[in-house]
């Protein structure tokens, strides 16, 4: 859970930085997408780097889901008779929604790849110019797409807040002081990633990026 | 005070069990929760009914026998308090109080509110000990222990093995209990020889007993009557990573 999660968080950070290039301009953003495809050249042939990254991410996502599923099945087996009355004592919303939140994020990623990578669900679907695809995606008329992206990214924020805390704990964070730092890091990363990802659709929606 | 109790009644391990309502009247706010149940049981006995079976021993918060989920919270609404130390003044006249046993596959119900916590013994047998020559007590200064370590080990050692952590855990995990033992012994010089095998064997016994896996949800520490901190689980994890690296 923790190891695959850390890989996914690293991807989220890099992907967010890449997305923010949209504020530099259409040429810079499109150039970035082309650069991604030639990363590692001349050592790696065209798009090889991207495929290696896709392989690593797929491995991480599958491993993450596999670990989560086995934990959920163990939890179900560990309490065969449910409580008639169950109070939420600690009540961390983020911790409680990890499993369903994860499912929502998975559905989002599938939609997102069909939208901006393969273009199947994108109104423009111009592979050479991802800038145009993004702008078309979040046009005010397609507010429902923006809404879905927003909800998905907020669930990612909650998922990260508990996920990062939990991963650091699993990897052996063991002091009170470290725990305070740990919670602050988890919250900070979640907020920064949410803000970074949300800035793009809202910039398009408000016409800042067009 | 007059109260409505809804109590889990189950004749034996095979019985399906159900919640049964009882009215209790003239409860003094100064009674402990268990005294209130004693009062109910006296009445049930006089009426020729089977009294409600529940575990208890010291009634002073140190043995860990008492075990009830009260209104959905293990050991009831008051923090850092066992059921036996909970007083009726924390409730109000006219309240309805739901009382259930610890719910976990590893803690099967024996009768009513009594569960078998033998699974914890299995975990202790797997590694919750140190090897030391018996006989007269050794000279206290022969093995110095840093004060901070001694304090933290002692805090972890206050775990009374009540099982509330398991009862509260959304995963039915016994990780806080196991981690308390790992922390208690792992911080002291006497615990070092078995440190690696301890964490590996205790975790194996934990999983073997049918407890769920830990997802650091934190419900355990919130109900723990001894305030065993979540950081102990980090110590367990770190010991486990180290031990796995050496194998
Ligand atoms: C609103 C914020 C986001 C925008 C504007 C955005 C935009 C894009 C774009 C334009 C691409 C295609 C890049 C290219 O082919 O060169 C892409 C790919 C991708 N995005 Fe996002 N993204 C956002 C949020 C996210 C989030 C939150 C996740 C993860 C949960 C995510 C996961 C992915 C993945 C996995 C790919 C790569 C698919 C592949 O190439 O195989 N994205 N994104
Ligand atoms: S860790 Fe706390 S809740 Fe769990 S068994 Fe020990 S004293 Fe009880
Ligand atoms: S009866 Fe001993 S701790 Fe409650």
From TrEMBL, chain A:
Matching CDD domains: SQR_TypeB_2_TM
GO CC annotation, single: membrane
Record keyword Transmembrane helix present: yes
Gene3D superfamilies named among the record's database cross-references: Fumarate reductase/succinate dehydrogenase, transmembrane subunit
InterPro entries in alphabetical order: Cytochrome_b-558, SQR/QFR_C/D
Keywords for this protein: Membrane, Transmembrane, Transmembrane helix
KW Transmembrane (keyword) present: yes
Transmembrane annotation, as ranges: 50-73, 93-114, 143-164, 185-209
SUPFAM superfamilies: Fumarate reductase respiratory complex transmembrane subunits
Name of this protein: Succinate dehydrogenase
Native source species: Planosporangium mesophilum
Higher taxonomy: Bacteria, Bacillati, Actinomycetota, Actinomycetes, Micromonosporales
Gene name for this UniProt entry: sdhC
UniProtKB/TrEMBL annotation, chain B:
Domain named 2Fe-2S ferredoxin-type: residues: 1-103
UniProt-listed Gene3D superfamilies: 3.10.20.30, Alpha-helical ferredoxin
Superkingdom of source: Bacteria
One Gene Ontology term from the biological process aspect of the record: aerobic respiration
Keyword Iron-sulfur attached: yes
InterPro entries linked to this entry: 2Fe-2S_ferredoxin-like_sf, 2Fe-2S_ferredoxin-type, 2Fe2S_fd_BS, 4Fe4S_Fe-S-bd, 4Fe4S_Fe_S_CS, Beta-grasp_dom_sf, Helical_ferredxn, SDH/FRD_Iron-Sulfur
Gene Ontology MF term list: 2 iron, 2 sulfur cluster binding; electron transfer activity; metal ion binding
4Fe-4S ferredoxin-type domain sequence ranges: 150-179
The protein's required cofactors: [2Fe-2S] cluster; [3Fe-4S] cluster
Residues that span the membrane, as ranges: none
Classification via SUPFAM superfamilies: 2Fe-2S ferredoxin-like, alpha-helical ferredoxin
Pfam families xrefs: Fer2_3, Fer4_8
Keyword Iron: yes
Keywords of this entry: Iron, Iron-sulfur, Metal-binding
NCBIfam families: PRK07570.1
Family: Belongs to the succinate dehydrogenase/fumarate reductase iron-sulfur protein family.
Protein name: Succinate dehydrogenase
Species whose genome carries this gene: Planosporangium mesophilum
